[in-house]
Input
Amino acid sequence: MTIIWGGLALGAVYALVAIGYNIVFISSKTFNFAQAQLMMVGTFVAYTGLVTLRLPVAVVVLLATAAVTLVAAVEERLAVRPVEDPETVLVTTLGAGVLINGLTQVVWGGQPLAVPFFGGDGVLELLGGRVYPVEIALVAVAVALVVLFGWFARRSVTGLTLLAMAEDREAAMLRGVDVRRLAFGAFAASGALAGLLGVFVGPKTFAVATLGASLALKGFVVMAIGGFGSMPGTLVGGMVVGLAEALAARHLGSEFAAISVFAVLIAILLVRPSGLFVRTRERLV
Amino acid sequence: MTMGLWRGLRALPTWTVPVLCAAVLLLLPAFGLGFSATRQIQLACILALLVSGLNLSLGYAGELALGQAAMYAFGAYTAGLLSVAGHTDIVLQLAAAGLAVLVVGVLTGMVGLRLGSWSLAMTSFFLVLIVPDVLAVFDDRTGGRNGLSGILGPTLFGRPLGPTEIYLVIAVVLVAWFAVMRNIVTSRHGVALRVLKQSPVLASSMGISVFRMKLLAYALGAIPAGLAGALFANLDLYVSPEAFGFVLATTILAAAILGGVTSVYGALAGAAIMQFGPNQSSRFQEFALVFTGAFLIIGGVLLRGGLAGPARRAVARLDRAAGIRPRPGAGAAEAAVPRIRGTELVVDGVSKSFGGNRALDGVSFRAEPGRVTALIGPNGSGKTTLLNMVCGFYRTDSGRILLDGARLDGAAAHRVSRAGVARTFQTPSVPDGVTVLEAVAAGRYSADRVSVLSAVLRLPRFRRARRADVAEAERMLALVGMAELRDEPASSLPLGMRRLLEVARSLAASPGVLLLDEAASGLDEDEVERLAELIRRIRRAGGTVVLVEHNFRLVLDLADDIVVLAHGQVVAHGPPAEIETNPRVLAEYLGATEEVS
Amino acid sequence: MTDESPDASPRKPVLRARGLATGYGDLRVVWDVSLDVWPGELTVLLGRNGAGKTSTLRALAGLNKASGGTVELDGADVTRTPAHRRVRRGLAYVQEGKRVFHRRTVEQNLIVGGCTRRMSRSALRGEADRIYEIFPVLGEKRNVLAGDMSGGQQQMLAIGQALMAAPKALMLDEPSGGLAPVIVAQVMEQVARLTEHGIGVLLVEQALEASVRVADHIVVLDMGRVLVGVRKDEVDDIATLREAYFGRRAGRPPEHAPTEP
Output
């Protein structure tokens, strides 16, 4: 059970990355490769705020949110908006991710930094397994975000326009939606989310410069399993990936963790090419 | 003076400059390069091989494959393990490495490509990530994370190779691969790849199997990576998982973007920049990622087409300044439609629904050789849907489609095309970076099959097919009155010309059935007349023509049979004289109703 | 239909184009189009396929850049105004092909249609009730996914969605496309009634007679230029319109033109 808790928490981290991907994907049908790197910046800012400057948690959360929103906004302006086709956006956002990776290494160095969790680090006994408070928090935050997003998308006018824009950009423009502003807003929001989550993710993963590359890929795998654009899909996808990784590492050895995730991904996609939560539609010519 | 020099330079065959560069590369050791300069050049060559393979899949097939670093690792470990086992012959190692990555490429490509869109990017990127794990699983052989040591020095036919000879081996492999790459890209397969990148729909309607073509490009692109790996293993005599990680994967991509992904030689420039730029600055090692990232953004945002883009424009500008024009089309005078073996197309009770909307409801008609069958009806009546069903883009819900009695429904689009059904599209799509002649010749892709191998080796069979392609394409261009445009870039044509280009391309395959989807819309007066005359000649030559058209006059003028569709059903069917007085047709199609006087 | 009095008060067109030119990239499709849409009146835009009708609408809506000429909306020059701002200023455009949001319900579609009005969701639901009065079938199906409705219902939804923005001018591109004749008549009737609310309507149609019947003004395009631009009461012979509509250049003498039934 301890393994399962660990796997679920890890899966929640991946799901959080995938939620960020999805926000950008839904709003502009592009894929922000640098999402995981944004989250990584969040963990570093959390470290600096909590450990180096010893600021109160609320201040650190605000600081991290503001900082990463800014980074995301700059990324959108420089690497996403000037580019037209989504294929090239993949390249430029990958570039932004690599750039952010390099800069964090320059600023914070290559060593993993431990980020303390504000909710304490005492081990709890839950359903016959040992679990850290941060692990429970991660799962709770991921579920809460998905529920919140579902509510926002269907219950608010802005959310509805976002979904409409996702379906048909031009038609949305003709209903008076400022698609560029909305897409920018969504991009910045995904950055804000990444910053906000730094204080939750950092304690689980450490703040480390190699975090970006592996989170980016796992986040994508989660998205591919759940289906592009599906928020509930991120939860299921995260659970599958997290558990596969944790169980494989426990029973087969750590070198099988990534390999088994790869195997699971391929198995699921061979059966459901567009993910678990997205229906395939007939191609239109 | 300088212009004269330029004219002289341009009069040389196009392979002159690359051959000269290759000669210089091979002769460099004679100038007594230092150890570090030699090593940098060798590493740049190895990087160029990796980049060139990526160009084939990303630039030409349009699939972002990030797995070159993993292929590189497979190649390096294949060579390294062979060497440790005592097989030190460099040729053997190169062959084994190339073969190993080809197998890995086909396997991973089959999975990644079947899933479409970004899946290949991710599955191939995942390959890079699991390399250290896979090595760790077999750590008794590979040394796991500690790396594989004990690789012996390479030999050639039993003779050990010195540093200069190793340099020569690397240079020869590089030159050979670029020759192969050039031959692929300039062959009909290269044109087919560009068509595919522009529009998979168009490609499959021309008989190109989208899946197989992409797989081919991806798997072939893995080969230079495997070769590069084998070379690297023999250069350092030590390989470890760290050499093949995320940083390398992004460096390869950055070099490709910088050099220009749709170019053959851009890979050299991109690799050189990355090797002598970020990779070199050991003092700024920590800034290497920053540079790579910045290059990716700048390359993606500013340099559309990489360095190859401005280079091509500069050549074009110099050409104009020096007054060099493309050769006028030769032998364009003769333009008769050859005898066509038309086939009979039968559509029998075909129905199709999308969601809740019934697009087609029990449609039947017959198109016969030597006749023009027109499909008319208001917008949204199902004409184009019907064409798409015939062409295999949609599956029928019920009913049959027969070509000379053989079932056609259920066949994939490229198979329908190979069975002899050619079509044009409402919105003509023309691939980037090919000439008018090449675009038309591409229509013959499924007519004569020529293997990639014979294109690479320029075998007689390839040369024969190429001559036939050119001759046939020239004749088709003459038929549509565009002979003088043969060397223009196809994408520069105005709409009317693009339509005629599409007609010429579909005719080039000598199709049994020719489907024209609104071929006359957007044409000017002359062009409509030219098209009408061409259709009459195809009919006389025995072709089966199906015409979807809005221009009612043109239809009355050309068609032998008219099928009127409305709301997915056939509402009238007959010769023009009957259709133009049919009250139901007037009501449905022309919007005339009894009350209006 | 409406009582026309051109001399009463200095009436201003709600939408006006002067010398409009546009195209796609280097390809110019519309060369010189001038037309007016008057409040409470219906202007029908006719022309062969490829004559430039849809491109004209796209340029008026701001989806395509005008490479020449001007567009005025309610007296203000909007030639360089982005598409979504034109909507906020009162220009609605219903594109060809029933482009509603298929994965959203009828009511959600209507709410998105009203997003420019800075109203709360519940206020917008109130607005939607007014649309249900015009198109009762939408009210019955308010919680049905738009993609699951029939073509005619989707067309009504598309129009209703545009009306949610309370437009001054409404452009409709082939609302009858792909619909059965009975439905075409219904849609046309609804379109004609829109002018009663004071909206200026610009209608692109293929169904020649059906649309001319409800029109106040008729504009015929050919090769991206205005061929005919008249008030309906100036048209004495519908055959001349038909001549213009089907194009005179198809290489067939006039006696083969379809005759009146």
